[in-house]
């Protein structure tokens, strides 16, 4: 590493401090990297300073520690080294999104599904998670997704029970190619855990899990389910991302803030 160069963090790199380590969140490339808390703190401290000048603000051990981490992360596009001091416009982290409802969870029931989705379109909801409790086929899934064609919908996630034909990878490649809004599918009650990735970044995938499907299970954590983008990151700075502008419609059409909540705020038929 050239010590005479300036160390410049890119504005799309955000450090989130945890108890034992930090996370470097790249909201441009939609990636994240685990780093030490020490590296995150030092990076912020010497941002826009020459690498060699870090010696004046760090003791020897911390300086060597920082250099080693820089070598590890140099190809991740989190920072750059330059001959001159670079200045970037900071990314505005104020959350603002032009939708009354941003995300919805729909417990699928065929007779009311179309009405629910159309009402959510009026509210500019563009992210949908569908829980399908009964086993369905590819052809039935195809019919279900037709309503989202030529709509404001951006992302669709589906959670549904296992069916043998879902193991056929080629069918999924064709299916995702046809339905560009489909982001991910989680297949519950699978005989074994597996993941079919549709792209190198693992943005689109089919995840097979052995657990029984439960739409009211809260707190499930899996790296494949992480959301990494600027709107979600900015929202998390000011709001509870689980509940803010989120809505759930259960199988009876009751409107809730979350599937786990007993209280409802009316019914889609009201």
How many β-strand stretches? Answer: 14
Outline type: elongated
Report the span from N to C terminus.
Answer: 66 Å
| Count of helical stretches | 6
State the helical fraction: 10-25%
Strand fraction equals 15-25%
Instruction: Summarize model confidence as the mean pLDDT.
Output: 88
Given as residue ranges, the uncertain stretches (5+ residues, pLDDT < 50) are none
Strand order of the largest sheet: 11-12-10-9-8-7-13-14
CA radius of gyration is 22 Å
Helix-strand topology string? EEEEHEHEEHEHEHEEEHEE
Structural class: alpha/beta
Largest sheet, strands/sense/barrel: 8 strands, mixed
Topology:
Layout: E1 6-9, E2 13-17, E3 22-26, E4 31-35, H1 37-45, E5 49-50, H2 60-73, E6 79-82, E7 103-107, H3 110-122, E8 127-131, H4 138-145, E9 155-161, H5 169-178, E10 182-188, E11 194-197, E12 205-208, H6 230-238, E13 246-249, E14 255-256
Parallel strand pairs: 7-8, 7-13, 8-9, 9-10, 10-12
Antiparallel strand pairs: 1-5, 1-6, 2-3, 3-4, 11-12, 13-14
Notable traits:
270 residues, alpha/beta, eight-stranded mixed beta sheet
What does this structure look like?
- Helices cover 23% and strands 23% of the residues.
- With 270 residues, the chain is α/β, with parallel strands linked by helices.
- The protein has an 8-stranded mixed beta sheet, with helices on one face.
- A hairpin with a 5-residue loop joins strand 13 and strand 14.
- Helix 1 packs across helix 2.
- It is elongated.
- The chain starts with 5 loop residues before the first strand and ends in a 14-residue tail after the last strand.
């Amino acid at each position: 590493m050239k010590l005479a160069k300036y160390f410049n963090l890119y504005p799309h790199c955000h450090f989130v401090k945890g108890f034992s380590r930090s996370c470097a969140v790249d909201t441009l490339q939609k990636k994240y990297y685990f780093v030490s808390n020490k590296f995150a703190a030092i990076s912020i401290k010497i941002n826009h300073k020459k690498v060699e000048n870090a010696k004046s603000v760090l003791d020897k051990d911390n300086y060597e520690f920082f250099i080693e981490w820089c070598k590890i992360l140099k190809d991740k596009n989190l920072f750059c080294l330059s001959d001159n001091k670079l200045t970037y416009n900071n990314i505005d982290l104020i959350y603002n999104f032009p939708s009354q409802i941003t995300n919805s969870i729909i417990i699928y029931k065929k007779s009311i599904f179309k009405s629910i989705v159309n009402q959510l379109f009026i509210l500019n909801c563009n992210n949908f998670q569908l829980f399908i409790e009964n086993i369905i086929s590819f052809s039935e899934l195809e019919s279900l997704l037709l309503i989202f064609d030529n709509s404001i919908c951006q992302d669709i996630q589906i959670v549904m029970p296992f069916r043998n034909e879902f193991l056929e990878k080629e069918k999924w490649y064709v299916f995702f190619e046809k339905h560009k809004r489909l982001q991910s599918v989680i297949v519950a009650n699978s005989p074994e855990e597996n993941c079919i990735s549709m792209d190198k970044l693992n943005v689109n995938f089919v995840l097979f899990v052995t657990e029984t499907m439960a739409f009211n299970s809260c707190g499930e954590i899996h790296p494949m389910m992480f959301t990494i983008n600027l709107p979600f990151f900015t929202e998390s700075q000011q709001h509870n991302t689980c509940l803010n502008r989120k809505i759930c419609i259960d199988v009876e059409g009751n409107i809730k803030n979350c599937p786990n909540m007993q209280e409802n705020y009316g019914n889609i038929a009201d």
